[in-house]
Specification:
437 residues; alpha/beta; Alkaline Phosphatase, subunit A; 3 domains; 11 helices
């Protein structure tokens, strides 16, 4: 409600200004806060740490210079926010790569498990949801922000193997969310036509009745698993119904056939996935997405950069190895170039039914599981924010004092109206959300 209308309302009913805070939230009076502009979140991941002296600006504040790795984003410097000093302080089971990856977005310990990594204790999956899924669930709980999928998880060169090194998104404790690494599979998920909707619906009806009949015969633990299966059936039914109602604002991208999901095609696969991601946002199929390049301990060979070494092996070379350092800078700069492509696509796409571009309403968070590859540090995790829509003051380089990265996740949640008191491990949330506005 704007100031002029507030005054008119108060005068008409002879109310005091002191009563206004108690009345503005009552929908029947028509004084509820106006709907938020559309907000979207993309979390982009690249692995194996960075080269700090080629990544972080030396300067703090608005007058900073971009280093070599992030130089592709020079045209968007005023839309960037560097957060130096964010640390993954989650401890417990698992090696640095495992906790770096599966605690990156969850901010909470891994369960004990039997997956062995490095020389540390074995571990299992994360024991809580990731911030992308938390925000997705918040959006899906409200009619005005609900979308067909809620969130979409894109992969580029992600292995089929499922373990804590390959999963950063979690729907809940022990519930990793697998990224889709094949763009043709993602295309089918987004735009595939149901050829026999009635037959599929009939199958779901049968499955639902069968699960209901089995429920009294099984243990409490099996009932918990059965509940997850029933939730999947309900989700499939919902997607069937919503797919039939979805009307596309923009036609899907056209892809050439037969681009195999393999190492040397990663550059083409990356652009295909980014095109799909942006198109899904234009058509309001989701407002949260992740874009995961390879995985923690990712050993992609960047042959398209004339680098035949595996990425992970290179990341373990000492700082004094100038050849390895140059290759790692080149690799990380390539990842930034893909971020630039994503940023350009968003900036060049008008906001449907609104003002500005998609970038004005989308925040991209580019991050990594390690601060530096050859020492596996979880300090100074690369976090760079690009875009808008969350009310953060961009165009800055911030120098923080070893702040738990849980506080960034809280800031993301608060920026969309989700007023969490803690996220992940509560003890790592002291100080509340980062003040970024």
């Amino acid at each position: 409600m704007n100031p002029i209308y507030r005054r008119q309302f108060l005068q008409r009913l002879s109310l005091s200004a002191a009563s206004l805070p108690f009345l503005v939230g009552l929908p029947s009076l028509g004084l509820a806060a106006p709907a938020r502009p559309r907000q979207r979140l993309i979390i982009m991941f690249s692995p194996n740490g960075t080269i700090p002296n080629a990544f972080w600006p030396d300067e703090a504040g608005a007058d900073f210079k971009l280093k070599e790795i992030v130089s592709p984003l020079e045209p968007y410097k005023d839309r960037m926010l560097f957060l130096h000093g964010l640390c993954n302080k989650v401890r417990g089971d698992g090696d640095g790569h495992m906790r770096g990856m599966s605690c990156l977005l969850t901010g909470i310990e891994l369960f004990p498990g039997n997956i062995q990594g490095g020389s540390d204790t074995p571990a299992g999956w994360a024991s809580g949801p990731s911030i992308d899924q938390e925000i997705k669930n918040f959006f899906q709980s409200r009619e005005q922000t609900r979308t067909r999928f809620g969130s979409l998880e894109f992969g580029v060169g992600v292995t089929d193997r499922a373990d804590p090194w390959t999963r950063m998104s979690y729907a809940g404790p022990n519930q990793p969310v697998a990224p889709i690494s094949d763009p043709y599979q993602m295309y089918q998920k987004l735009y595939g036509q149901l050829k026999d909707k009635e037959n599929l619906q009939s199958i779901l009806d049968t499955v639902r009745e069968d699960l209901k009949a089995v429920r009294p015969l099984i243990s409490p633990e099996d009932r918990r698993m059965l509940a997850e299966h029933e939730a999947l059936v309900r989700q499939m039914e919902k997607e069937i119904n919503e797919a039939s109602r979805q009307k596309l604002r923009v036609s899907p991208p056209t892809f050439e056939a037969g681009v195999a999901d393999q190492n040397d095609n990663v550059p083409r696969l990356s652009r295909m996935q980014i095109d799909l991601l942006v198109n899904s946002f234009v058509n309001d199929m989701a407002r949260v997405a992740t874009l995961q390049y390879t995985k923690s301990v990712g050993s992609a060979r960047m042959n398209w950069l004339d680098i035949t070494d595996g990425h992970h092996g290179l990341s373990h070379e000492p700082d004094k190895d100038e050849v390895a350092q140059a290759k790692l800078i080149k690799i990380n700069k390539w990842f930034c170039g893909e971020l630039r492509y994503l940023t350009e696509k968003l900036a060049g796409t008008p906001e449907p039914g609104g003002d500005g571009s998609l970038l004005d309403h989308t925040l991209i968070v580019w991050t990594n599981e390690l601060g530096k590859g050859n020492n596996h540090t979880l300090k100074n995790i690369p976090f760079v924010l690009v875009g808008g829509g969350f009310g953060f003051q961009m165009g800055r380089s911030l120098k923080l004092e070893e702040v738990a990265h849980n506080r960034l996740h809280l800031a993301l949640a608060h920026a969309v109206g989700h007023r969490l008191e803690t996220f992940g491990k509560p003890a790592l949330c002291d100080g509340g959300p980062l003040k970024l506005s």
